[in-house]
Amino acid sequence: MSKNAKTIEGGILSAKGFKACGIGAEIKYKGRNDVALIVASKPCAAAAVFTTNKVAAAPVLYDREIAKKGKAQAILANSGCANACTGRKGMEDALSSAKAVAKELKIDSSLVFVASTGVIGRPLPMDRLVCGIKKAASSLGTANEDALNAAKAIMTTDTKPKQAAAQVKIGSKIVTVGGMAKGSGMIEPNMATMLGFITTDAAITPSMLKRAIKLAIAKSFNRVVVDGDESTNDSLFLLASGEAGNKPIDKAGADFDSFMSALTLVAASLARQMAKDGEGATKFVTVNVKGAKTQSDAERAARAIAKSPLAKTSWFGKDPNWGRVLAAAGYSGADVEDMKAEVYYGNEWAFKKGKVADCAQLEKLEEVMQSDELAVTVKLNLGKYEATIYTCDFSLDYVHINADYTT
Amino acid sequence: MSKNAKTIEGGILSAKGFKACGIGAEIKYKGRNDVALIVASKPCAAAAVFTTNKVAAAPVLYDREIAKKGKAQAILANSGCANACTGRKGMEDALSSAKAVAKELKIDSSLVFVASTGVIGRPLPMDRLVCGIKKAASSLGTANEDALNAAKAIMTTDTKPKQAAAQVKIGSKIVTVGGMAKGSGMIEPNMATMLGFITTDAAITPSMLKRAIKLAIAKSFNRVVVDGDESTNDSLFLLASGEAGNKPIDKAGADFDSFMSALTLVAASLARQMAKDGEGATKFVTVNVKGAKTQSDAERAARAIAKSPLAKTSWFGKDPNWGRVLAAAGYSGADVEDMKAEVYYGNEWAFKKGKVADCAQLEKLEEVMQSDELAVTVKLNLGKYEATIYTCDFSLDYVHINADYTT
C-alpha cells in the first residue's frame, strides 16, 4: 500500500475498536430507524466541528463543552426532532440523554456526544428516546449491516444512506478511517442539517485530531453548497481509537499527512454524496474557479455561482447559460474582467474573452449539459488562485419538497 | 396639500417638461415595444445609480461618465439585448446609440443616457436600433398612453408595466415626481435586471439630486430582494426639469424633505411593484426584523430571511415554518438568541421566546398564510434597531421560467 490512502468499501465500523447500531424508537417516524449509537471499546481521542449559526441547537451547545476536553467514547444520534429552539428544557434533555447512554454503557456521561436532526421547536420525546437508548445499547454490533443501519437511522429527506471508508499505511500499520453522514437536504419540516460521523483506529493525540478535522472539513463539507441555508444542528464528529497500533501521531509530518490523506478521502466522499443527494437534485455540479487574483476571490466567486438560483435553475434546464454564471462571479465581490474571462461546461467553452459559442459549439455544449454530473469552470485569468465547490441544481422537486409541507 | 407627498395616478410623464414614447424596433421581440425614449424640453439636473456588479454592462460603464456631470436631457432604453460582456464593441455601440439619439433630437450626445436589458454576450443590432431611435424621436408625446408605451417597452419577463407618481407642495408650487421601472425578475435568457426611470419638475441642484437619489434608493430599490442575484445592468435614473417653478432646492431643509417625501413614495411604489411581480411569485412578502442590537444586524437578518430558499419555498407552501425564518436570521451574522426571539406572520405569533404555536394558534396562522400579501416579522428583542425588506416567495413557476429556456 502506498503512502497515499485508498478508498475501500465500508462505513462507520471499518476502523477497529467500534460498535454501532441503528434502531427504531418512534421519535417521529414509525417503522424505520431513527436512533443511531456509535460506541468505542475505550475512551478515544475526539474532535468535532459545529454550526456557526447563532441559533445553535441544544445538542450543539452541549457537545461544544464535551469536545473541549478532546475525549469521548460514544455518540448518540436521533432523527425526527432537532432539539433546537427548545431553551433550558432542550439542554436538560441533551444532558439526560447523554446520561442515559452513559448508564447503559457504564461509562462517564462526559464521554458521550449527542446529535439531533429534525423538527425545530419541539422537545425530544424523552420517554421514547430513553427506551430507544436501552434498545440501542443492547443492539450494538460490528457487522456491515450494523453500520448500514446506523447510516439509515440518521437519514431524513436523504434518498440513500451515505457511507465511506479509506485505508493508509502508517509505519508498518494499516490505519482505517470510515464514516457516515446525512445530507444537507432540507429535513421536513424545518431544517437543513448536515451531520457527519467519522471513526478511525489511528493512534493520534487530541490536539492533532483537532487539527486534522479542521483541515479535512475545509476540503470536504465546507466545499458543499446545496441551497446556502445553514442549519442550527450541523455537526461533524471524529473519534480515534488508536487500535491500529501505529506510533501515535503527535506532530505534523509524514505520518500526519498519511492520516490526512485517508481522512480527506472519507470526508470528501461523504460531502460529494451529500451534494449528489441534495433535495430534488437532478445534477451533481462541480464549480471550479481558476485564475483568480486572490484565494478569497476564488472562494467567493465559486460560492456565489454555487448559490445563485439563476445559475442553479439553468443547470436544471440543461442551458449553457454562461451569462448567469459570470454575473454571479461578478457580484461575488471577486475581481472579474468580463473580457478576460472564460466559462466552460465540462471541457467545452461557452464564453471566451468576449467570444460567444457559435452553433457548432452550442451543439457540443448541449450534449455536455445532458449529463447528470456537470463541471462548470470559470477562468478569470487575473491570477493563480483557484477554488472548487460541490453543489447541485435547483429543480422543481426542490420547491415541491420544501413547499408541500404543513407544519 | 400638506407637506407630505400624496400618491397620484401617473408615470414617467406626470412631471412637467418631459415627452416619451415606446416603440417596436425588433431588437429581439417582434410585435411589441422594445425601445423607450424619454426626452426633456431642455437640459436637466440628472443623477443615477448603477449596479455594483464587477461585470457591468457597456451602457452602465458609459452612463457612469455621463452621470458625473450631473446633466442630461434624454434617456434611451431597449429591452431584448443587454449589451453586456460585449467588450470594446459594446462601448462603441453605447456611444453610437447615444449619438444617434442626439442627432435626432439635435442635442449634445453627452446629455444622453442609454440603458439596455436582455441577452448577455450578444452585440446590439445597431441597424435596427438606429431605425428604432428615428422612429422613437418622431413618436414622442405627453399623453398617458405614451408613458404606458414607454413602460411596456422596457418589460422583459415582467407580467405588467410598473408606473408610479406623487405630488407635494414646495412653497406655493406643486412639484410632481413620476416614474417607471422593470422588475428584477429574470430576463430570458440571461439576466436579472432592474431598470428604473424617474422624472420630476422640481427645481433642484445636481448635487442635491444626487443626494436625493441615494436616500430614495436606500428606502426602495435597495430594499427589494427577489432571488439575491444582482444584474450587470441594474440602473436607476433621475431627471429634474425645474418646470414646477419652486425656489431651487440647493441645500438640506424643509423643501428638500418635501421633495424627498414625493420621490420616496414613487421609488418605494416602483420597488414594491417589482417584488410583487418577481418571477413566478405568488406572494408579496414584507420581511420585518425588529429589536436588533445594531442597524447592521437588522439589515443582515432581514436580507438573509428574504434570500433563504427554504423560507421562500415555505411561504409558497403556505407553511408558517418559523424555524426556517429564525435559522436564516441565525446564520446571517446578526446576534440572535432563540429564547428571546419571536416570529410573527401578519399579526399572529408562531414562536414566542421558546413557546410554539398550539393548535388554536396554528389555525389562525393557516388563515394568514393564505393571503397573497404576507408580513413576516422577527422580533429579536436584543436592541432597538429595525429593517424591512420587500420580497416574494419562491414558486414552481420560478424554476419553470428560469430552467425552461435554451440559449
Distinctive features:
homodimer; 407 residues; alpha+beta; L-amino peptidase D-ALA esterase/amidase; Ubiquitin-like (UB roll); 2 domains; nine-stranded mixed β-sheet; six-stranded mixed β-sheet; 28% strand; globular
Structure explained in plain terms:
Two copies of one chain form a homodimer. Chain A contains eleven helices and 17 strands. In chain A, a hairpin with a 2-residue loop joins strand 6 and strand 7. With 407 residues, chain A is an alpha+beta fold. In chain A, the strands form three sheets. In chain A, strands 1, 2, 3, 4, 5, 6, 7, 10 and 11 form a nine-stranded mixed β-sheet that branches. A six-stranded mixed β-sheet of chain A has the order 15-14-13-16-12-17. In chain A, strands 8-9 form a two-stranded antiparallel ribbon. Chain A has helices at 58-69, 87-105, 126-137, 144-153, 206-218, 254-276, 295-307, 309-316, 322-331, 359-369, 396-403; strands at residues 6-8, 18-23, 35-50, 71-81, 112-119, 162-170, 173-182, 186-187, 191-192, 195-200, 235-240, 284-292, 342-345, 348-352, 355-356, 373-379, 385-392. Chain A has two domains: 6-276, L-amino peptidase D-ALA esterase/amidase, CATH 3.60.70.12; 284-403, ArgJ beta chain, C-terminal domain (Ubiquitin-like (UB roll), Roll). In chain A, helix 1 (58-69) crosses helix 2 (87-105), helix 2 packs parallel to helix 3 and helix 5 crosses helix 6 (254-276). Chain A is globular and about 70 Å long. Chains A and B meet through strand 9, helix 8, helix 9 and helix 11 of A and strand 9, helix 8, helix 9 and helix 11 of B.
